[in-house]
Amino acid sequence: MRIFATLSLSGALAFCLVSSSNAILPKQSSATSTRTLLTAYAAPTEFSGPFKKYYQTANPPSVLPRPAVINAVSGGLFANKYFPDELANPTVLPTLPPAGDAVLPKASATARPPASYAEGVQANISSIIAGSDTDCNKCIASVKLGQALARADPASAPVVMQNLCRLYKYKTNPTVDVACNRTYAAETLGGTSTQVLSYADFTSPNSTDAQYICANVLGKCPLPAPRELTEDFLNNWFGGRRQPRAGLPNVAFKSGSPQLPIIGGILNALFPKQENRLLRVLHFSDIHVDPRFLIGSEAACTSGQCCRADSFNTTVAPNAVTLLGTGPSYPAKLDSSNISATAAYWGNRKCDAPWSLVVAALESVNKINNGPVDMALYTGDMVTHDANWHLSRDLTYYTQQALFDAMRYFFGPTTPVYAAIGNHDSSPSDTASPHSLPDGRGEQFSWDWDNNARLWQAEGWLNPLEARQAAAHYAGYSVSPRHGLRVITVNTDFWYRGNIFTNINTTNPDNSGMLRFLTDELQKAEDNKERVWIVGHVLTGWDGSNGLDNPTNLFYQIVDRFSPRTIAGIFFGHTHEDQFYVFYANNGTSRATVNAVANAFMGPSITPGSSINPSLRFYDVDPETYSVLDVHQYYTQLQDVQPAPGEGPTFQHLYSARAAYSNFSASVAKGTYTGPVQLSGEGNATWPVDAPLNATFWSALTDEMEARPELVQTFTFYQGRNSSHSPACTSAECVGAKICYMRSGSGPLGKQCTQGFGSVQG
């Protein structure tokens, strides 16, 4: 391995909050710099990790490892045994999850109707589709018929979905029959869709469930208008405490030793208070390890998951389905003449991460940091992107066990990892049901919450009480790792547009109770004079395409209520890109910098995803206020070149946010800098060295971008981490759209921006 020169860091910083306004003003501190970061680190070629056994050992660059992972979940077929090789073998791709994974609603009728009933429903839906009404009206009429079937005969509903899919060719890859039968089986989307049809409200006068289903799932209706959160609603939500109680200090100046669970007493003795050293925090996200990654397969497929035994590009392999078959066994690869781009050992730009890349990234963290980081935030998505018929509970168990064990192995026992669950970390993907569902269906994903809670406790990151809290709150929990700091992790699937269960009780902005949990924990933190980091997966804002309007609007009000005193940071993932956005007072009615109260960071991914480079992020954090003082982005160039023979990926420093964005000279010259922070340096146009990179900083950056549009292209370059495949953002339309996204912390605000410029992937 090669170790490169170190990167100088700025001195330690601190600040105080001014209670009379939203402003954050700088205050000098005697804190010193934390460990020095390397400018670059080349990971070794050799594969290492926590795995004691392999079904196949690594032999770069031609053979990927297949680690054997013990299933520590009690009960089940593989309990306390190694998961079988077939579970993650690249030449064996399941055609469906096990039948036991299927969950259907209970029938409301005492007797099952005759088979002709389902046939009649299907015929009536076909008749509606053939009619002359609007697509939206046809869709709403059809889902109401579907509800009648789902309630009377749940087992027949997936069959009708499969039939309609084949009839209208809604799914085509690898063939219409295969795709429709597998996509809408009871074990996959057929079961979850039947539940939503059964439990949705299509009859109440003000219900919007049918319209949401037809908008979010079927794309046939416009979205309903967001619910207005009235003053009465918000007063009730916050228990009459719309403002912080009088007498609170400007900031919680508590600091000190880590409070690691399980072994906290021992570690506190070993690591006494460190008030004068900056904290180093890792933010990493969206690993999406693909244990079925197959070297030599098609890396530029035209549909489905690439770098797989069943991947193909129709341009060069029009007869691929005939050559490969449709599984589950794929003993032969396509000939090289039928492959447009070849899957390689370290990964490819349209594929998820092979084990080689994942281990190289995790192994690089402590090397780059010259020692363990103080803590790590993982913002979700471990499981590979895949068709639901290739997924299963066991694959989820396997992935979570393997990756959390790997994190503990590489980061060490002194680094707690605070992880959020992602939308892909379940089976079927993108699903999480609220506890309020009847007939016990609200607990159908408890296997997932319980497993995460068990693992977090086993790795030493949560104590038993915190683990029980995580199991009870959809893998959400509240923990204090250091004096004065509280980390609140939430399951963001309940505001994710792709979660089909969010189409039930859609007028309720908190159908799951997740935001109630967050609010209550924030109130406790405020009362205890703690600062809070909120950790989740799916972002609430940016361009408005991911988060649902009603819950993200409520989240915005929660952030407004508890910022800037209590909330010190908000951390998401999901988009795979380097992004941020700002929250403003009074629901963003005036998105002027003087009104900025909080900001959210989206952590870039480790998976190459769609034409972006794998990435790691390090924060310098004030040890008293827990504000972010600098952002250091690292990446490895995987989009255009593979590492040289005998070398692993090199993770190199891409930028420091303070160095890249602290020059506000254009907005100062134009008279549009309105931040409450007094700038310094030449021309009084530089962000002070003793001020945090808080909401004021990031909002002022958007003002600078308006005055200096080329700065948006710099941001875009970082967004995809120096990927040659990222589209440029130089037009006035693109520049304006991205600045608008940066000022949008909720779905409704993001949707007000010009669409089409939110992502650099393609």
TrEMBL record:
Residues 1-23 form the signal peptide. InterPro entries: ASMase/PPN1_MPP (IPR041805), Calcineurin-like_PHP (IPR004843), Metallo-depent_PP-like (IPR029052). Keywords: Glycoprotein, Hydrolase, Signal. One of its GO terms (cellular component) is extracellular space. Residues 422-441 are annotated as: Disordered. Residues 424-434 have a biased composition (Polar residues). It holds the Pfam family Metallophos. The keyword Transferase does not apply. Residues 279-577 form the Calcineurin-like phosphoesterase domain. GO terms for molecular function: phosphoric diester hydrolase activity. This is Calcineurin-like phosphoesterase domain-containing protein.
